[in-house]
Amino acid sequence: MNSHLDPTDLGILNLLQENGRLTNKELAHQLNRTISPIFDRRKRLEEMGYIKKYVAILDREKITTSLVAFPQIALTSHSEDALASFQKTVISYPEVLECYHITGKYDFMLKIIIPDMHAYNAFLRQKIAPLENVGNVHSSLVISQAKSEIGLPL
Fold this sequence. Notes:
Strand order of the largest sheet: 2-3-1-4
Radius of gyration: 20 Å
Number of helices: 6
CATH superfamily of the largest domain: Lrp/AsnC effector binding domain/regulation of amino acid metabolism (RAM) domain
Strand content: 15-25%
CATH architecture of the largest domain: 2-Layer Sandwich
């Protein structure tokens, strides 16, 4: 844990992870503090990058029926330029929600949200396969989701 964070900072972060719309007044009430120091601490946490942004989490199933896939991709070259080029390209695709450089048999794992299997096949054939450094792709498709959390345990 970062030494810059005291219990009040951690309390603010925990509460905001649960509900990013909490006002400073509500935070102060829940943490038994006054509003002014909570305002200052929240602003400092934002300026220091502990709070990156505030977002609304949408229910994917209510927006659209979509396929969630985790392709794992092995590259043919592992030079710094090759890794950076691949990463820069794939993170520009709107279908890619997450991109991880990983250890093991594969070099990258992506989290893809796409309408259906036909669209996923087109994504692989038109966007991933043509990249000059792609050697092998292994896909895992989500059947069901038991848990999805974005908050970090503090």
